[in-house]
Every structure is written in C-alpha cells, then in structure tokens.
Amino acid sequence: MNLIDFEKVLTIGAGGQVGSYVDFGLRPDSKTLDITNELQVEQYIQEHKPQVIIHLAAAADMARAEREPQYVYDINVRGTYNVARAARKVGAIMVYASSSRVFKGDKNGPYTETDTPEPETQYGQTKHIGELIVSQLVPRYIIARTAWVFGGGPERDNKFYGRVIKQLQSGKSEVVALNDVYGSPTYGKDYIQTIKTLLEEGRVGTYHIANAGVATRYDIAQVLATTMFPDATVQAVDRTYFPGATSLPANESIVSANCTLRDWREALAEYIEEEWMV
C-alpha cells in the first residue's frame, strides 16, 4: 500500500460531472485555478505542493471541439501541459483523465490498454496529446481512460443519460437512441473510487476504467425507461437518423486487464435510485 494523504490531493475540475464525487483534498474552482493560465497554475501548485494532482478539467463538448479546434487545444493540450509541468516541479503524482476517443473506433471488440491510440477527431487528438505530455513530463503518472460517463445527478448530468431522463420526466412517451454505436457506460463515482484505489496501491501507468459490459445508447435508454418510466418506449435508430451522427465512431468500448468494476447495469441502477429518485 502507498501512503497517500488524500487531504494533500489537488483535483482540477472538481466542479464537473465526475469531479462531483471527489470529497477530499483541494478542489479549487476554475476562477481560482485556470489551467490555461501558466503562471497561475505554477503559483497555485507551488504554494500548496500537493502530493497528487487529479486532472479532470477538459473541453468535453465534442461538437464544439470539431468546430473550434483552437478552443479544445487551449484547454486539453496547453492546459494539460501547464499542469504537468507544475506537477513535475513539485514532485507530484499526476492522474490524467483521458478517453476512449483516443482510439479510431473501428475495432471488433473493446479496446485494451495495449491497443495503439489512433484518434480521428479533434477531441480525441487533443486527449492523446495530453497523454503524451503527461507520460513524458511527469515521472509518476496514471492515465485513466474512461468512456460514456454518467453521474452528477440532475444538476450536472447534461449528457445522454441526463437528457433522456429529463425528456421522460417532461412527459415524453417515446425517446429515440442509437443502436449501432457501442461503448462502456461508466459511473463517475466508480471512476473516482478506482483512481483512489490505484493511488493507494502505488500503481502507475495507463488504465482503462469503465464499468463491466458493453452497451449501445439504445440499451442504456431501455434501462432508464424501464426503471423510471415503465410506460415509456424507446425506439432504436442508426446513425443516419441524427444529423452529423454518421461521423461517430462505431466502437468506444474499453476493457482492462488491471481494473475490474461492477456491471454497468448495477451501477446505473444505483445512480438512478440514489441521485434521481429522491
């Protein structure tokens, strides 16, 4: 076991969907710590000298990333460089939250840690560059790839899961969801807990952190509807149904040889019960 004092852990991006499950250490907001401001990053980290830096902050709006490549570069590349450089100076372990989008998305089956990244989108490219920066600059690091994250409850869940639930809550009797894109649904709470475990065990390197199992958006919507709104129906559609969806990778699923998480259905059921049905 590695002696990590979690009160000396700095989390950047703790105000976001995944960061909402961080209940330890330093958690500055983006005004206090703007990762695109190199001087501010260096001064903050030099002042607090964290033992570990968990870097969750990212430009995650994938549609905007394709329209505005400079926007996503500034946050995901330049911002990550600023954090990694400062982490190296104080000798901190750095945990970098990355994505299955670093892969091309055409593999027949889940991507493993040994598969070679081959990103095809602006977002995926910047996340891969971030991985390279961290692995080259920081002696002790964890690259924590994930996919199809849910979490944050009604306040923070503005992605697919939250949108489907809110549509059904508004009285919509039918929702549509893709059945030809595959991914690994991941509970943000399980993702953070796994990172904590890796740190406690003294692990370093690249890890795929996702709940067990592969699903389509249709599969997820079915679970949401069945659990919360049994009278609602879910219509399965392919990528030609939504404008721009044909560019989506067919496969965003990941699996790990080193991290075993519970099944995504169990995790999603807990998320619904504890954060939406209260």
UniProtKB/TrEMBL annotation:
Gene3D superfamilies: NAD(P)-binding Rossmann-like Domain, UDP-galactose 4-epimerase, domain 1. The keyword Oxidoreductase applies. One of its GO terms (biological process) is dTDP-rhamnose biosynthetic process. Pathway: Carbohydrate biosynthesis; dTDP-L-rhamnose biosynthesis. Keywords: NADP, Oxidoreductase. One of its GO terms (cellular component) is cytosol. Its EC number is 1.1.1.133. It holds the Pfam family RmlD_sub_bind. It is an enzyme of class 1 (oxidoreductase). Residues 8-274 form the RmlD-like substrate binding domain. Coiled coil: none annotated. GO terms for molecular function: dTDP-4-dehydrorhamnose reductase activity. The keyword ATP-binding does not apply. Catalyzes the reduction of dTDP-6-deoxy-L-lyxo-4-hexulose to yield dTDP-L-rhamnose. Belongs to the dTDP-4-dehydrorhamnose reductase family. This is dTDP-4-dehydrorhamnose reductase.
